[in-house]
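In the current project phase, the collection of sequences with tokenised folds has grown. A representative record is quoted in full directly below:
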Amino acid sequence: MYLKKIITQGFKSFADNMVIELSQNIAGIVGPNGSGKSNVVDAIRWVLGEQSVKSLRGDDAMVDIIFAGSASRKPMTVATVTLIFDNADHYLANSEDEVAIKRRLYKDGTNEYFINNEKVRLKDLTALILDSGIGK
């Protein structure tokens, strides 16, 4: 099992749909200050169920992670992050060869969790990743 792809839209500084493709040989993500490296880490933590706004470097409420807008862009009303894992070895307790874990947050504070585009509870997501080494 390995993290194959990160897809995010409306999460922190990622207003546009952003896709990061990862190979098995990747060792790290590098870039200059302000390029969003920490936001990629926050996105991964968030989609895996992080509940602490402070841990995600937000201020008051979870909706702080939704893209707030800029001089040239309107604020977003939803943040979505998807992690796609290669599960050909079935390390995750799922029969699929590829497992997509997605979290969506709306401006009203509503959270949704998905495994392979099927809506699930946070508890179901936690159960999937519990013994995988990718949880908290």
User: Anything to note?
Assistant: The mean pLDDT is 90. The radius of gyration is 15 Å. The CA atoms of residues 37 and 110 lie 26 Å apart. The helical segments are 37-47, 122-129.
